[in-house]
Structures are given as structure tokens and as C-alpha cells.
Amino acid sequence: EMSESVAYEMTVNLARQTKGLRFKKRCPRAVASVKEIVSRMTNCDDVRIATGLNEWIWSRGIRKPVRRIRVRATVVEEEGEKFVAVSHVQGCILRKHFKGKYSVKKVIE
Predict the structure, then answer these.
(1) What is the pLDDT of residues 36-67, one digit of tens each?
(2) Cβ(25)–Cβ(34) below 8 Å
(3) Pairing of strands 5-13, 68-78
(4) Among 2, 22, 86, 97, which lies 20 to 30 A Cα-Cα from 76?
(5) H helices of 19-100, where?
């Protein structure tokens, strides 16, 4: 039997999440914010960040996380456990790539 999974695509504004924080807290807070926002959107507590996404957020060091990031959150159900896998949407790196993009929900067969 085929189980359908759901994927969400959204832009997370990390600048808003880390504004005013002291330097050494910024990147850890940015990663935690992605988890929190995805958790709220998908209604699932177990959120797993892909290595590539984590490295992208940290790419400019602990003090200066990327300001905006486009992520794809896929709800995975296997062997009785349910979690959300979050990955970076490649190609969304410049400001123009975020213009006119909204949060979308896709059902994958």
C-alpha cells in the first residue's frame, strides 16, 4: 500500500529570530527557530534538520547566520514513528529568489 507524505515549503526569516541577541547565541538560536517554526507548521514535535541545512545556516560563522532561508519540511511516517525531515531548498540564496514565494503545502504520493 502506498502511503502519501506531506511536504511544506516555506521561507524562514532568521534575521527576525536572531535580532538583538548576543553574538555567540545567534546561530544556535537560528537553528532552534527553524525547528520551532517547522514544528508549529506541521504539528509534530520530532523535527530533524538535514546536515546541509545546518551547514548553510552556520556558513558565515556563529555571529552571522544567514538572514533568510527557504526550507522544505517533509513529514515522514515509518515503522510507527512520525518525524519531520527539514532540508534546504537549493537555489534560494539571493534576495530575489525569495520574492513572491509563499508557504506551500504539497501532497506527495
Answers:
(1) 999 998 899 999 999 999 999 999 999 999 99
(2) no
(3) antiparallel
(4) 97
(5) 26-42, 51-58
The answer for residues whose C-beta is within 8 angstroms of residue 7's C-beta and 6 or more apart is: 72, 73, 74, 75, 105, 106, 108
CA angle 11, 13, 19 (to 5 degrees): 170
Task: Count other C-beta atoms under 10 Å from residue 81's C-beta.
Answer: 8
Distance CA 97, CA 68 (A): 10
Average pLDDT over the chain, rounded to an integer:
86
Contact 44/75 with Cβ under 8 angstroms?
A: yes
Q: Is 27 exposed, middle or buried (0-12, 13-18, 19+ CB in 10 A)?
A: buried
Cell of 99: 520574492
